[in-house]
Structure formats: structure tokens, C-alpha cells
Specification:
Elements (H helix, E strand, L loop, with lengths): L2 E6 L20 H13 L4 E6 L39 E5 L16 H7 L4 E7 L1 H14 L3 E10 L7 H11 L3 E3 L1 H11 L1
Parallel strand pairs: 1-2, 1-4, 2-3, 4-5, 5-6
The protein binds pyrazine-2-carboxylic acid and zinc ion.
């Protein structure tokens, strides 16, 4: 099965010190860098998503939403984590840019599905932030679109905005047929196959 890597929203605002900081979020970076290095070395496709909101986005508390202002287009908080090794020329998909619509999934209004299908991708490896929102919704959309999905389980962190979000997300994803593996097991497996 032709694999691709999808790295979700590894942005400054989701990391410690950021506007919507998730505990230990920066700990996903080394494992994702190892996966990025492996996919690049094996010539396998990879895609990056980013949360990319206008200053008046509907999800912000200022507009009655549940989130503090975060990942505002063009601000330092919207940049990728400085240690994330985004390859030059990598394809970046921005989402949540419509002020009136929440868009947790990297597939929502981005063209990611078409980009993956046009490369013959069948299997999506996914990691990043946040496990219980954007990673989950992207994984569920990928299953609906017919992809096999593997979450890099040591390369995700949950925000737990409501108690129990993480456990619910895990159960929902498992019900949808999403699989889980570590980055190192994944890299070993791909090294043998490609
Ligand atoms: C996300 C909360 C708000 C995410 C985005 O990337 O998971 N979470 N916006
Ligand atoms: Zn957001």
C-alpha cells in the first residue's frame, strides 16, 4: 500500500508558551522529524497542514467560540515549530481560513484528498497536534475517503479542552478502523518495504 505522511498543525501557538498551549506538545517534534527524514529518504510523499485563522475566526472566545485566539494568519504563533524539519518545497495545506467556519480536519476545504489520491496514496501515517481535535478529525475524514490510517501514537498530544476528550477520541478513531503505531516501528517497517 502506497504510504504518505501527514503532519498536522505543529505550530508555535499549540506548543508550550503559545496562545493555545498543549502540555508537552513540543515533544512530538523529534519523532516527527525522524518520520520526515525516513519518508524523504524513501521518496515517499508527505504533506503538512496548518491552522490558519483570520483574526475574527468563529472559534475564538471573542466570537463565542471555545478557543483563545490562536494561529492567526501571518503571526509568529502560526509558524511551524522552529525545530520541525519541514522540507523545502513541502506541500502545506492551510485550514480554518474562513472566518465563519471551524475546520479541524486537514481535509476540510484544502485539496489534501485530491493531492493524496493523485499520487496513488492508499495509506496515511499521521501525527501532530492536537490528537483529540485536528488529528482525530483528519483521521476520520481520511477513513471516509477510503484511506487506511495509522496514527503515530508517540507523535501526538491531546489538548483535552473538555475532560475525557482524549479517551473519546481514541475510542472514536478505533471504531472507525484507525490503527496506531510508534514512529520507530513505522520507520523500521517502511525501511523493509521500500
Ligand atoms: C486545533 C483547537 C483549535 C488543532 C485547532 O489543531 O487540533 N485545536 N484549533
Ligand atoms: Zn484553530
Amino acid at each position: 500500500m502506497r504510504p504518505a505522511l501527514v503532519v498536522v498543525d505543529v505550530q508555535v501557538d499549540f506548543c508550550p508558551g503559545g496562545a493555545l498551549a498543549v502540555e508537552d506538545a513540543d515533544q512530538v517534534v523529534p519523532g516527527l522529524n525522524a518520520a520526515i527524514e525516513a519518508f524523504a529518504r524513501l521518496g515517499l510523499p508527505m504533506f503538512f497542514t496548518r491552522d490558519w485563522h483570520p483574526p475574527n475566526h468563529i472559534s475564538f472566545r471573542s466570537r463565542g467560540g471555545i478557543w483563545p485566539r490562536h494561529c492567526v494568519q501571518g503571526t509568529p504563533g502560526a509558524k511551524f515549530h522552529p525545530d520541525l524539519r519541514v522540507p523545502t518545497g513541502a506541500t502545506v495545506f492551510s485550514k480554518g481560513d474562513d472566518p465563519a467556519k471551524e475546520a479541524y480536519s486537514g481535509f476540510q476545504g484544502t485539496g489534501l484528498e485530491g493531492a493524496m489520491k493523485s499520487l496513488g496514496v492508499e495509506e496515511m501515517y499521521i501525527g501532530g497536534l492536537t490528537f483529540d481535535y485536528c488529528v482525530m478529525e483528519s483521521a476520520l475524514d481520511a477513513r471516509r475517503a477510503g484511506f487506511s490510517v495509522v496514527v503515530l501514537e508517540d507523535c501526538v498530544k491531546a489538548v483535552n479542552a473538555r475532560p475525557g476528550d482524549e479517551a473519546r477520541a481514541l475510542a472514536t478513531m478505533k471504531d472507525a478502523g484507525v490503527k496506531f503505531a510508534t514512529a520507530s516501528a513505522t520507520i523500521e517497517r517502511l525501511n523493509m518495504l521500500y
